[in-house]
Design a protein that fits this description.
Shape: globular
Low-confidence stretches: 1-20
Mean pLDDT: 89
Radius of gyration: 19 Å
Number of helices: 1
Oligomer: single chain
Distance between the termini: 35 Å
Strand order of the largest sheet: 1-3-4-5-6-7-8-9
Structural class: mainly beta
Length: about 240
């Protein structure tokens, strides 16, 4: 009987945690800090225990990006940064916050700080997830990439995407870009809303062909620079556990 009770209690905990995670998954826009409306535009994406955000000023001026892994237990929220474009010294830092999630609102609280986010999308499709590039065609041959500290990942959820190139071991940040997307009937369309290196690419709409083969995303088309590309993206599964 004690074993059965423990199993049921554990199952309830797991169910509650998964429901909390599911409540966060999607895309959110920051609307206030310490009850004061924000001036910059910040969009954060949550999917599969990973999060990423990008901030810009106006239509074109990229400001910063950060993200990593997160955990939720009831009202307790913990996040650990894998990248931070503004300060690489913050990579590996852990934030512990109180979280409150409703259907359309996400609130974070700590002693002298509050944030409020508004949900802008929760739609899920077959590309919703966190992906890491593992192959790219060059001179007609597919070149495989080993997964290491230096990586390029892409997170998609709630009709929003963001890709990030960084080194999780050294904290180096290389580049990012993001915006909205649509994936349907084998066509994938990206609408670029921020780009850390070349802001003249903001506003571009790119169309690609895609297939999911053996759980990998095959991505074909032309880059924002007009170059033909064929890439393979694999599910990104972080093995790290958040520890204080």
């Amino acid at each position: 009987m004690k074993i059965l009770f423990s199993f049921i209690a554990f199952s309830i905990f797991q169910l509650g945690n998964s429901q909390s995670l599911a409540g966060l998954e999607g895309s959110w826009e920051l609307i206030s800090e310490n009850k004061t409306p924000v001036e910059l535009t910040t969009v954060r994406i949550y999917q599969d225990v990973f999060f990423a955000e990008g901030t810009k000023e106006g239509d074109y001026d990229f400001k910063n990006a950060k993200g990593g892994i997160y955990e939720v237990e009831g009202s307790s929220y913990t996040e650990k940064f894998e990248f931070n474009s503004a300060n690489k010294e913050k990579v590996g830092n852990i934030n512990n916050l109180v979280v409150e999630v409703t259907k359309d609102t996400l609130k974070f609280k700590e002693q002298d700080f509050t944030q409020t986010w508004l949900k802008i999308g929760d739609y899920q499709d077959e590309l919703s997830g966190v992906w890491i590039i593992t192959g790219r065609q060059k001179d007609g041959e597919m070149q495989k990439r080993e997964i290491g500290d230096r990586k390029t990942i892409k997170i998609l959820s709630g009709t929003r995407f963001q890709w990030i190139a960084y080194n999780s071991a050294t904290g180096e940040f290389f580049a990012t870009g993001g915006g909205s997307y649509l994936a349907k009937y084998g066509r994938y369309i990206e609408n670029i809303e921020f780009f850390s290196k070349d802001d003249f690419r903001v506003g571009a709409s790119l169309t690609f062909d895609y297939q999911i083969l053996n759980n990998e995303w095959h991505h074909r088309g032309k880059s924002s620079a007009g170059d033909a590309i064929y890439e393979i993206w694999s599910p990104y599964k972080t093995e790290e556990i958040i520890r204080d």
